[in-house]
Amino acid sequence: MNQSTGATQALPETPPYPPLYTPFKFLSLRLALAFRDSSLSSNALTIAWAALLATASFAVAYERPMTALTLVLFAIFLDCLDGDLARYRYRPSLSGTYLEQLAHWIGNMGLAAGAGAAIVLADPRPGNVLLASVLVVVQAVYITVVRQIRPDAAEVIGHPRLRKAFRRITKGIWNLSPIELPMIVLLVVFGVTEGVVLALTVTLAALSALVFVPHFALVSVADRRKWEAPVRLDRGPFTEASRRSAQASLHRFPDAQWWAPGMPRLPPEVLTPLGRQPLSSDAPVMTTVWRELSQLLPGVFRTSGRVLTLTGPREFAIEAVLSTICHPADEILIVGGRTTVRRWSTIAERLGVRTAHLETSFGAALQRSDLETALRRHPALRAVCVSQAEADDGTLTELAMVAETLRRTSGLFVVDACLSLCADDLRMDDWGIDIAVSSSDSGAMAPPGLSLVALGPQVLGELDGPATNGARPAGYLNLRTHVSAGDRPLAQLPAPAVSGLYISVQMTLTTGLDSVLAHHQRIAARFRRGCVEEAGLALIASHPTAACTTALLPNDVDVTEVQNSLFVNRRIVAGYATTPKNDITLQFGHVGFLSHEDVDEAIAALATAVSAARANASER
User: Fold this and answer.
1) CB-based contact 393:363 (threshold 8 Å)
2) CA 273 to CA 286: how far, in whole Å?
3) Which residues contact 369 (CB under 8 A, 6 or more apart)?
4) What is the largest CA-CA distance in the chain?
5) Helix (H, G, I), strand (E, B), or coil: what is residue 384?
């Protein structure tokens, strides 16, 4: 078992900047990282560079162009720094965006007013006063036109030449940003003269017209299309079938809130792409997303190793692990609840791998003494496979304790985190976990369709070499095949699951994995408290997981009646199962994009459903 440490940490994405910002961004990104943990405010920086641009306008008015240039350069640097600092702290804000827009208005208008004031102070003729006034008005028009550009204007159907011209014009305007820099350079090189001010006025007026005319034309086309009566498209035999299928799908697949274990609440950012035409699995962007996802996933497992992503359900991951690390007649120890033991045993026996079982007592966590006894009885284990969390009873296994117990053994430490990933802490490198398996529809908050196999550094090194004698052929469900493929996917990518997992993992690492785990702990504690205090149910687990809660239903309460009430009143779907003593339990999963208000509503619905079922039972 490996004991190395380290995990990847996601850095914030930096939006694309115009070329003129490049040297400033080079410095600001590094300085923002240094000031990330300081008390320096991003909004204070915005106010500072707005003040610098206002001061630069006075320097222009009094014909001190070099001083103005210095102030503008420093202001642009601070403009980059305030945004980078907010992103490194993961605290972008609408107030900061609003303040920055105002600062750019001050800077643009200030420099134009300064140039106009300079020629008026030098020669207060009426012509110069008029020219200065026109410059200020033209500059205001330019700012307004540029700031009001609608990005979707270039996507209007039809008029391809106009759209192409509009894209080129806006690209040119973008390359001139920040406009304060070309303006001050022009004034420094040619001086603040009447001719320069006139040229600046004409240039800004021409740029305004170049942007406004095609933009207004395209927006007008979009408006006319919106006002027109919708055209009913004839899709042949699908026209009527589509209408009937839409009605049938609402009945067959109702909109519901899934609170069953293993069904995470997906964030809106993940759901949005699912409502569009899916990307082709061969699209270049999907290959890029796959590679970036491979770099992000180790941070979720807290490993310096590698995470392999297989196309298929979670059972694919289990079979891939066992078929790779085990030879026929090898023995493994399976530790967990009855469902976990049954799942792993079925796959292992199909592969010819001998199994020993350590089934934990229902509702009780794994005890060190029981594990030590099992290890003494089976000293030549190839692997010890431990479930981190059980949906049957909502119990959490202390993996740190297991790791300490296994420290003196030679077998591999394998963890089943299909339910608990991103809900309960999983530290592969710190706890010496060799392999962990999970899936996209865990606490990772993504659609189903992908299974995940995380390999610690030591196992990754072993799999990177040639297979030993007796190993199975390296097919798709063999980890060596995926390790040798590098960052190249070996099968067609299920685009919805891949894109959803990419978005959700980015969100998790950007928010901070520790923050996500703490949120799930608070959500789970609130749910358990509500089950006991408000719904009057008894909890099963003595050491509960944050991924789900299992509650014992009273004997006089009909579980079907409770489930129907939950669905009819709040569209809530919960799971249920039977205990070894044939008692009925309700199972609730509470991972993913959930708020405390969501939990409060679910608890209120549960309390109402249980109360109504009890009342009906007493009447019967």
Assistant:
1) yes
2) 13
3) none
4) 104
5) strand
The 3-state DSSP class for residue 552 equals strand
SS3 sequence, 238-304? HHHHHHHHHHHHHHHCCCCEECCCCCCECCHHHHHHHCCCCCCCCCHHHHHHHHHHHHHHHHHHCCC
Return the SS3 of 494: coil
Amino acid at position 455, single letter: L
Pairing, β 257-258 against β 584-589: unpaired
Beta carbons within 10 angstroms of residue 527's beta carbon: 26
| Token couple for 38 | 């300081």
Q: Are 549 and 419 in contact (CB under 8 A)?
A: no
CB count in 10 Å sphere of residue 387: 27
How far from chain centre, in Å, is Cα 121? 56
261 and 589 in contact (C-beta within 8 Å)?
A: yes
Peptide bond before residue 178 is cis, with ω within 30 degrees of 0 = yes
φ/ψ of residue 451, rounded to 5? -110, 145
Instruction: Write the CB contacts of 316 (distance below 8 Å, at least 6 apart in sequence).
Output: 310, 451, 477
* 38 touches 96 (CB < 8 A): no
Omega before 580 within 30 of 0, i.e. cis: no
User: pLDDT tens, 162-173?
Assistant: 888 888 888 888
Place of tokens 């395209």: 218
Q: Are 10 and 506 in contact (CB under 8 A)?
A: yes
d(CA 615, CA 620): 9
Burial of 462 (0-12, 13-18, 19+ CB in 10 A): middle
- Coil, helix or strand for 547? coil
Amino acid 376 reads: R
Alpha helices in 62-159 (DSSP H): 65-88, 94-122, 126-147
Cα–Cα distance between 295 and 490 in angstroms, integer?
17
Q: How confident is the model at residue 2 (pLDDT cuts 50, 70, 90)?
A: very low
pLDDT tens figures, 123-139: 889 998 999 999 999 98
Cα Rg of the chain, angstroms? 32
d(CA 155, CA 137): 31
Distance of CA 345 to the CA centre of its chain: 34
Give the number of other Cβ atoms within 10 Å of residue 201's Cβ: 21
Which pLDDT tens digit goes with each residue over 237-259?
A: 656 566 666 666 666 677 788 89
